[in-house]
Each structure stands twice: as structure tokens, then as C-alpha cells.
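Troubleshooting log. The previous structure file for this entry was overwritten by mistake, so regenerating from the original sequence record. Sequence copied from the archived sheet and checked twice against the printout by T.R.
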Amino acid sequence: MICCLNPDCQNPINPDDNQFCQSCGNKLVLLKNRYLPIRPLGDGGFSKTYLAEDRDKLDEHCVIKQLAPQIEGTKALKKARELFEQEAKQLQRLGQHPQIPTLLAYFEEDQRLYLLQEYIEGKTLEQELAEAGPFSEDKIRDVLFELLTILKFVHQQQVIHRDIKPGNIIRRPASAQGSEKKTELVLIDFGIAKQLRATVMANITGTTIGSFGYVPMEQMEGGKAYAASDLYSLGTTCFHLLTNVHPWDLWKKQGYRWVNSWRKHLKQPVSEQLWWIMDRLLPESYQHRYQSVDQVLEVLELQSAPSANPSQSTSKYNESFLNFLTSLRQNDQLKKQVMMGGFSLLSLGLITQGYGYFRYKIFPYNLSFLIAGLPSSTYLKTTLNGHSNSVRSIAVSPDSNYLVSGSNDHTVKIWNLPKGELVRTLNGHDGNVYSIAITPDGENIASGGDDNTIKIWNLKRGQLKKNLTGHQGFISSVAISSDGKTLVSGSYDH
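Regenerated output below.
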């Protein structure tokens, strides 16, 4: 079979011996007298891709990307050529990574620009999702780690992908690599055609680079892209794979507000650690997201870090314990000391455990807090409802009359603790509130969040007193000295 390269042809597939397309009448060509197009692969509006055979390499498969339509006008064509060559050289550098398709050639023919790239065998993650349903958390973590590793290389080349989505990620089977390695992900379809469209067709206002649902606000509105833009697209990709809900369906109804309630679409529970990562990938404002791949990898690798080698620790423990037993057998005085110490420890344990047991059995409702790990709901005094998203931090006033909570709904709430009632809601943060502290005199609240600010509030009146700025990343913790004169903050700006 031979495929017609007329981008407007409705039925481009032709028999091998045809010289002209049986549908549109265009001449059927062998590009550069070498590359034979055999069938269409996809249509990106400004570009079309075709599966092809390389006649100089025993008909090895490759991909033709045709930048269409034909560019009219000398000035526009010159600009397109310049940008095309610049971007093709970028793709050539990127193709050095084993999980990015290799650029084989780029050229102009019949006033159209062409790219020739390595063909990647396998299924896209979009196809995997359609066939097998939502991904598990472990599978999502694997996707995150592999894509972040690829993106780290891409961003180091001063390139932004601009169009990360499940359909642009292919899982290459191990057999295609000729080894017993596990399958690996390959990132395809960098934004060269979209950049050409935005630059050459400058008379079209509002040109968007990226795919609806996955594209962040800065690309949607101004065509700007940063490392954090790719991270947003990676976050929406993971959301789609976790839930099988297309982010574009949510965006059409809610705009970017959907990212504040993404969890309600989960089909299965996920860990709080993954929540944390997703919450930092998805903010509408790019300033509130992770700013680099390294920041995400640091959190991901920290969560996945293995504990100390148990066999090694056990071996050292056993050796020490055997030495101790040998000493004990040979030393009568040591035996007496160990027996007395053991009796003291046993007595202390019985007293403290007995007190604790009867304390909670006889006076369970005098407790002010729910103790984590208790097996019964007998000890739960009350539940405070009011936040519309996850609660990130709480603090209790020194007199135990107030509880203050910070949440991913961007609010701080003050509660009357004895009554279990909401006193007031403090609005002012432009992002999640991760940390709360109360001054020792109980007069003021300090709250820090991912809008990179610390806000000082009057607890009794709920008035904003000060807005502290200076951090370049979100505030993860705040603390106040015992004399109430010094506030210390920790942030992701290191």
C-alpha cells in the first residue's frame, strides 16, 4: 500500500502500483526517493503523521510528520523554515534520550516541511486506560517517576514539551527493546508543529498550544510555558489515568475550579502522600505549583525510600545480644542488677498501663482529643465539619477554648472547642493553608500556605493584622517562640 500525502484527501490509501491517488488525483510520492508513506497515524490540525517504510533500511518503519497546510507567502515560508530548523535541531538533541523518539531527518519538499522520526512500537496510556480501566496508585507512581526522569532531561535542554497527555505517552514493550528489561514509557509529539502554527499564523488570535483539559492557564491565555506548565499537564494526565474522568469534561463545566475538588472523582482510595503530590501539580496558578522536576522527584523518592536493611540490623542485634548473654552467664553481680532492673521496668509498665486503661474506661468523655490508633470510637468526643477540602493543619489555643484549622479550601476556621461550634472563617489565602500556629498569649494566629505568604490574624476578632512575604515557595510550617516575639517559617524555597 501507498498513502497519499495530500492533507485534504478523504481516502488516502492506494494500491502499490498506483502513480496517482485514486481519490484526489494527486501524484503519489516517495519522499526524498526513500521514505514510502503507507498509512495515516494521526491528525493534529496543523500537522499530520504517517507510518512509513525506509527503503534504504530494509523497509524499517519510521514516522513522517507533515507540517500542513502549505505555507503561502515568501515571508511566512522564510519564518517557518527558520523556526522549523531551530526546533528540528532541538528535537535532534532530545532524541539522544532513550525514552524520546530519535529524529532521523528533516527537510522541505513541495513547499511543505517534514520530520522523520523513529517509530515506537506499543500502546499509548490512553489506549491502556480504555482497555483496562483506571490505574492503581503503584502504577501511577511508576508513570510519575518515569515521566519526571524524562522531563528532567527535556527541561535541562531548555525545552518545554507543552502537550503532555496519555495519548502522547507510549509504553514500549520489552520485546521491542530486544532484552529482558521491563517495559518503559516513551514521550512523543513535542510541540514543534504547534509552535510553528502559533508563530507563522500570527494573525490568528488566541492560538493555544496544547490539548484541551491538559493545558494550564498560562498556555491557554497567553501562550506562555514554563517547567511548571509541563508539571500541570503531568498532573492532569495522572488524574485522568487514576479516575478515567477526562479533565476536559470537568473544565467545560467548572473551568479550572475542578482542580480544587479532584479527589471526589477517585474510584479507589489513594495515599495521603499521593494527594500531596497531586495537590502541588494541579494549582491553577503556575506560581503555586512545583517549580521544577527535581522538587517533585525529591518528594516522590523520599516517600519511596527503603528502610534500613532489616537482615543487617537483625544480624548486628543478634551478635550484641549473644555477647550480652555470655557476660550475664559469667557474672553473678550482673545477673542481680538485671533482675532488679527488669522488676522495676515491669512494675512501672503495670502501673502506667493500668492507669491508662482505667483512666480511659472510667473517664472517656473528659478527653479533649481523639488519640490516633485507639480501637474504638468510644473515645471520639466530637467531629467538626465545615471545610470543603482536606484539613492540613490544626492548633489549639493555650486556654483550650479555641481550635484553629487550615485547609485546602484556602480558608482558616476558628472553632469553639468546648462547644464544637464554628466561630468564624478567615478568608485571605490564595491557596492551600498548610500550617497554623497560635501565640502563647492566645491572642494571634499565624497561617502559612502555598500562596507563599504568612498571615497574622487576631484570634478573637478574626481581623488580618499583617501579611508577611519573602519566601519564593509555599510555606510548609510556622512556629512561634515561647515569648511570642519570634516567628519561624519553613518553605519549599529551601
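DSSP finds eleven helices and 20 strands in the chain. Archived copy saved in two places this time.
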